[in-house]
């Protein structure tokens, strides 16, 4: 049998945005009881089964919290959330309901249309999707452990040492603990990532990231409850509420519409060293008086001054935001680099733009 370990089940969320970074963590004790005994499985077989598994129809809850003291990032409602409900029909349609203090942000991924609704602003965005380009929205990825885990496995397993290390109970389900450790040549802030894989469905239930010198996870994203089975069809359709302002976007592929003037992100590097490069929207000023919208620029500069450190380098000048698991560098001319890497790696990546 796999050697079980006593572990606490914790829940968390992490999010990154072009131009700023939000990272959250919350460690809460799990219910009493030992980790389950499960039949042995090799790391290779477990990874293979996870990547081959198609997510079944399900519903579940993910609790979200932000305890790093970073301000809310405009356009990233997941960072402001208290909890979220996730629904999936097993064939590509999904619904995400992100609970905030007094409002809800809803994402509905239907057959041909992606809807988003912000009840606080009473605003709706409608984006047409084509069958060859339709994909879950970014916000869904931030609050869905299964999607996040599959992306991690696909992107970093070749640059990792992979092992099965004990078992855990997550959302009242027995799970294997799959551990990815970066190889020595990787330049990353992370020591390891643990993925709790459901022993029955092979669906990832929880993702935890650990940094060097710590025994507690720096961030964690996981289901607190999950149930499998057919979901009501009406969950995957949406009708704008009366009086809501509806904005219609053009087709822009699986990541949804970009803001005016925003450049498509570029990925530099691979595996644990991966850096995301992009630019802030053209109408947002990050540090200079360029005649851009004063309110937008002032709000962003104020946030950067609050959470960032003023820095200079080959890229010019800008702001550096550091957390235990990620680093972001936002230059005064609007370039953005972010990754789970030290500042030096971001500086080198910015040399490409």
From TrEMBL:
InterPro entries to which the protein is assigned, alphabetical: LolA/LolB/LppX, Sporulation_related
Domain of life: Bacteria
Location of region: Disordered: 241-264
Keyword set includes Lipoprotein: yes
Keywords: Lipoprotein
The keyword Phosphoprotein is annotated on this UniProt entry: no
Protein name: Outer membrane lipoprotein-sorting protein
């Amino acid at each position: 049998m796999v050697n079980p370990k006593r572990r606490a089940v914790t829940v968390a969320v992490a999010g990154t945005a072009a131009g700023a970074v939000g990272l959250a963590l919350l460690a809460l004790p799990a219910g009493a009881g030992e980790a389950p005994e499960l039949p042995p499985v090799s790391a290779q077989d477990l990874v293979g089964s996870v990547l081959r598994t198609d997510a079944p129809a399900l519903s579940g809850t993910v609790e979200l919290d932000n305890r790093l003291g970073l301000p809310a990032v405009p356009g990233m409602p997941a960072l402001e959330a208290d909890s979220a409900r996730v629904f999936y029909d097993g064939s590509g349609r999904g619904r995400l309901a992100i609970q905030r203090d007094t409002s809800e942000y809803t994402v509905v991924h239907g057959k041909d249309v992606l809807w988003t609704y912000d009840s606080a602003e009473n605003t709706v965005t409608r984006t047409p999707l084509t069958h060859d380009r339709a994909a879950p929205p970014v916000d869904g990825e931030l609050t869905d452990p299964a999607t996040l885990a599959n992306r991690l496995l696909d992107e970093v397993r070749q640059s990792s040492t992979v092992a099965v290390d004990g078992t855990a109970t997550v959302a009242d389900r027995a799970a294997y603990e799959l551990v990815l450790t970066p190889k020595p040549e990787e330049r990353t802030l992370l020591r390891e990532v643990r993925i709790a894989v459901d022993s029955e469905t092979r669906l990832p239930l929880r993702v935890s990231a650990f940094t060097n010198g710590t025994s507690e996870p720096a961030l964690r994203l996981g289901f607190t409850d999950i149930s499998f089975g057919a979901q009501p069809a009406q969950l995957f359709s949406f009708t704008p509420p009366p009086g809501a302002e509806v904005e219609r976007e053009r087709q822009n592929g699986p990541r949804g519409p970009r803001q005016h003037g925003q450049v498509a992100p570029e990925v530099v590097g691979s595996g644990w060293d991966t850096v995301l490069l992009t630019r802030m929207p053209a109408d947002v000023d990050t540090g200079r008086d360029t005649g851009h919208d004063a309110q937008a620029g002032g709000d962003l500069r104020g946030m950067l001054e609050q959470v960032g450190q003023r820095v200079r380098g080959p890229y010019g000048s800008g702001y550096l935001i550091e957390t235990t698991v990620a680093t972001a560098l936002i230059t005064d001319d609007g370039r953005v680099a972010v990754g789970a890497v030290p500042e030096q790696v971001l500086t080198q990546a910015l040399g490409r733009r």
